[in-house]
Design goal:
The protein is mainly α and 129 residues long. It folds into 2 domains: 72 residues, Arc Repressor Mutant, subunit A; 32 residues. 45% of the residues lie in helices and 9% in strands. The protein is built from 6 helices and 2 strands; from the N terminus they run αααββααα. Strands 1-2 form a two-stranded antiparallel sheet. Helix 1 packs across helix 3. It starts with 7 loop residues before the first helix and ends in a 15-residue tail after the last helix. The relative contact order is 0.10.
Amino acid sequence: MDGPNIPLEILRLAEAFVFASPEPVTWKTLRPLLPDHLDPTDVLEALKQHCADRGVILVEIGGAWTFRTAADLAVKLQPALTETRRLPRVAMETLVIIALHSRSPVRKSSRSAASACPSCRSTSCWRPA
């Protein structure tokens, strides 16, 4: 299951590295952590087999490796992980300005009309383009 020549400790190291990495892992980023006699691609393939029956699986996307939720569990998890969040007021005001003036320049008067604080006279918060 783990690949014939890949020690469990190396698989654990690779697993921790993929999990902790902020970006998907390539063989080049894994290479410095491994002994010279091991091929990073073989280690990643062995790790993929090692994780195949778990809730989180290792997948290759565009030459880089990352963990993803197993497809059969994603549907079951979706209701628990779906969260409806409202946009902050400032973001909504920005979207209103964009929607109302998408074909014409935005002026201070139109920003003030859509803003919650039309009396804002600070020049530091508004500079025309």
